[in-house]
TrEMBL record, chains A, B:
Top-rank lineage group of the source organism: Bacteria
Record GO terms (molecular function): isomerase activity
Species of the source: Sulfitobacter sediminis
Pfam families found in the cross-reference section: DSBA (PF01323)
SUPFAM superfamilies (UniProt xref): Thioredoxin-like (SSF52833)
Protein name: 2-hydroxychromene-2-carboxylate isomerase
Length: 195, 195
């Protein structure tokens, strides 16, 4: 099962924080797949909140209520949108290669949503990387290399081919489940296939 | 608790069909509040599916999967969007006054989603009204009166003042819950207030 997400997506905060518990409870494992949701949304003319203040206000209230249900205490609204979205996810791509993508994503979301520090820029970037035992200078150099930029673009193309149009999205055997509120449906789908 | 909806909304099919069971299971009662969601969306520049084929295809698949979970068998995609959206909801406003809004809404959605007959136009309108024991000619004349047009506009303004921006929406003591997938959250919210 793949967990497609972009650091920069608001609802993905919920999934990033609660996925370990869901994995434990259902004995499943997701592969963390960062991609550039902004590129997909621009491409598909899908603008969820910009210029939509009523819907945006609802989104923050909804996230706040659901976070509480999951035992989380975000400070909402968090800074949004993120100017550093692409860099945040390029760092995540380095983490995919080096095995710390999940830890970094959780650390950076925590700072973004709980301390009000935007992901993808300083001080969030270096603090999050240090917290998980990485060398910020080394990782940030790698994150801005051509090969990582290409890897993020390739992942984004792969996501679009699968029918992913937003974040978070769970893909199970070709079935697409969009939204943190479809996480349990995705898990049930996976378990119904196994039987 | 108010159930704000527009006949013409796709996800509202799920709520319209399963609300009686949710009401029974949780011993709650919703007031059915038709409004003109298209007016709100145009006003707020919120265009969920038009020109977004990937998201629209996902929406139908998602409705199909969730419908199955609720024991429903819609033929998807149903005709969409509905040219007769306003008339469909004007008829519903007559039903609010005369006490058959819920029966009519369910009958017209059933024909729209299960027989492929668009709501808000013939043969769906007259068949649905006849099915619930109404005189189609009489109801359709009333539905197109100035007072009913005004009542639908007033309901739409009231919805917007509450922060409603889409359909279905549940409003419980000022808290707004958007989407069929928030119905249980709305019920839990109402029950937590009672305690």
């Amino acid at each position: 099962m793949d967990f497609w997400y972009s650091i920069g997506s608001t609802y993905s905060y919920l999934t990033v924080m609660r996925l370990p518990e869901v994995e434990r409870a259902h004995n499943v494992k997701f592969r963390w797949r960062p991609f550039d949701v902004r590129h997909v949304m621009v491409e598909q003319n899908n603008i969820p909140f910009k210029g939509k203040p009523v819907k945006a206000a609802y989104m923050w209230r909804d996230i706040e209520r659901r976070a509480k249900k999951y035992g989380l205490s975000p400070k909402v609204p968090a800074p949004y949108p993120l100017p550093g979205l692409v860099l945040a996810n390029q760092v995540a791509m380095v983490g995919v290669n080096e095995g710390w993508v999940e830890d970094y994503t959780r650390a950076t979301y925590k700072r973004w949503f709980e301390a009000g520090e935007p992901a993808g820029e300083e001080p969030n970037l270096s603090s999050s990387l240090e917290e998980i035992g990485c060398d910020p200078a080394k990782v940030l150099a790698a994150a801005q290399s051509e090969s990582i930029a290409n890897a993020l673009s390739a992942a984004t193309e792969e996501a679009m081919k699968l029918g992913v149009f937003g974040s978070p999205t769970f893909v199970v055997d070709g079935e697409v489940f969009w939204g943190d509120d479809r996480l349990e449906d995705a898990v049930m789908w996976a378990q119904s296939i196994e039987k």
